From TrEMBL:
<protein>
    <recommendedName>
        <fullName>CXXC motif containing zinc binding protein</fullName>
    </recommendedName>
</protein>
<keyword id="KW-0479">Metal-binding</keyword>
<keyword id="KW-0862">Zinc</keyword>
<dbReference type="InterPro" id="IPR008584">
    <property type="entry name" value="CXXC_Zn-binding_euk"/>
</dbReference>
<dbReference type="Pfam" id="PF05907">
    <property type="entry name" value="CXXC_Zn-b_euk"/>
</dbReference>
<comment type="similarity">
    <text>Belongs to the UPF0587 family.</text>
</comment>
Length: 112
């Protein structure tokens, strides 16, 4: 994850956007120490996977794409390039001799 410097040397954030109307700089920063994996045991439940520090912006939607990884629950087989753009992903775990997948990805944002 890359960071973008904030105006005036006030640190950095994961995303910085300038308002076209008032020229104010707004930002969202991923709090890296809050990143938590979603495991097979979490299936069909909502789980906090990441927290953001938001200044002037509020996330309203999430479109998963590339950058995800998975691991076979029973075999430990790594799947380093999981693309969730279609909200579904399938592959084959040769160690387990069976299909594996992630289906119907959903999300929600909770304000703290």
């Amino acid at each position: 994850m890359e960071n973008v410097p904030l105006k005036g040397g006030r640190g950095s954030a994961s995303m910085v956007q300038k308002c076209k109307l008032c020229a104010r700089e707004n930002s969202i920063d991923i709090l890296r120490d809050t990143l938590t994996p979603y495991n097979a045991g979490d299936n069909e439940t909502f789980k906090t996977m990441v927290q953001f520090e938001c200044r002037g912006l509020e996330p309203i939607d999430f479109q998963p794409q590339a950058g995800f990884a998975a691991e076979g629950a029973e075999t430990g087989t790594p799947f380093p390039e999981v693309n969730l753009l279609e909200k579904d992903w399938t592959d084959y775990d040769e160690k387990a001799n069976e299909s594996v997948g992630i289906y119907e990805v959903t999300h929600r944002f909770i304000k703290c």
